[in-house]
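Please, structure for the following, as tokens.
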Amino acid sequence: MKFHHNSSMAVLLSSFAVLIGLNLAFAPAAFSLTDDKTAAPTTQKNDIDESDVTRFTSAIGDIKDYYVQKVEDKKLLEDAIRGMLSGLDPHSEYLDEESYKTLLMTTSGEFAGLGVEVTTESGVLKVISPIDDTPAAKAGIKAGDYIVAINSQLVHDMSLRDAVDKMRGKKGTPVTLTVLRKGEKAPLIFKLVRDTINIASVKSSMPTKGFGYIRISQFQQPTTELMVAAIKKLQKDNGGNLQGLILDLRNNPGGLLETAVQVVDVFIDSKKPNKYHDMIVYTEGRLPSAHYEAKASSSDILKGVPMVILVNEGSASASEIVAGALQDYHRAVILGSQTFGKGSVQTVLPLDSTHAIKLTTALYHTPSGRVIQNKGITPDIIVESNLKVTDNTNLDDAMIEPIHEFNLKGHLNSVKSASDDTRADDINADNAANLAVVTLAKNDFQLYEALKILKGMYMLDQNMVAGQK
């Protein structure tokens, strides 16, 4: 892996929203965009005059003199810093001592809370994604939901910090969320119990013989190593090779930028010439020190085997880097719905040993130069998240998988031969496989479509190879 950067401050490209756990959770990567946090453009004009300073100090004085309760100077100063950061964008924020400690701990993959990532929008909390196997995911919270009340108290009347504090709590304690969801006429009430969140960032399976499935729920420090191990196991279980791989990044809110770069590098062969010169991602900001780029330096673990990447509106930040890079290189087909569109980089700038600010310093670009901020990644094949096959009795499973002559009642048998028993076994195996596919279509239509396309890509590749012989 080739990194070109300065090295002192920790950079975040991760959970751009609030991780409802012990505190605000953002994962710092092991590199930085800036060495000098005091650096500023030499052409910047100082537009703060004496009247501005007077107005600020007068406001503090009035609060101290006339507010109904006594307010400590420390709180006023901290709130002033917090207000400055919150007025910039949704991702810049002040990190007090507790928040700063939590930020440095979250890459371990274990924390306490509900397991839901949110951001603010129009005075309420918008759910970016629930994390797999957490109280929020198990209760049915979905990406795009709006949390309007916590324990019957309106979120609109709270600051973001107050809302976070309301959802935090000890393991085993209950919390009730009132949620608005598109398509639902009435608010939904979810009763959750806070729990310790252990994130298994990588899961794998083989939905059908020869075709592997990898799910990445967040980009943490061990994610790349876990993913590579899962791929090798899938290859071993299939006799040494896979015919195709599905990489599922749905509802993945991001994580470490460095890990996202490593994941892309696993699937790109840097020894082959390409028009992007092995670029995976680069960032540009107002200061020269905000420039960063990462390039591929390894070989493709799959050796060109077809890939499909699943994304949806809950795929954000580092997920969009992975999908965007592999889309630019035509290494994978992107399937699903438009991603979230969080393409900004946050740098953690310590104020002292226990406090810091998290400041948006740059925007990232895919290898082809696309900016993802506020745009997201547009899939090659659109399959909306809300599409599904129902259990309507009028819907024949044959609409999903075609029927054959031997499926018809009273079909005419051919003359029995020595291979009939083997053929019968093959038919039984085919029927079992078809049943599994039908079940998959009903449970996860996007994954079903991805598997169909992946099989088609493999067949096309095989035909092309055969034609070249």
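The CA atoms of residues 49 and 295 lie 45 Å apart. The radius of gyration is 26 Å.
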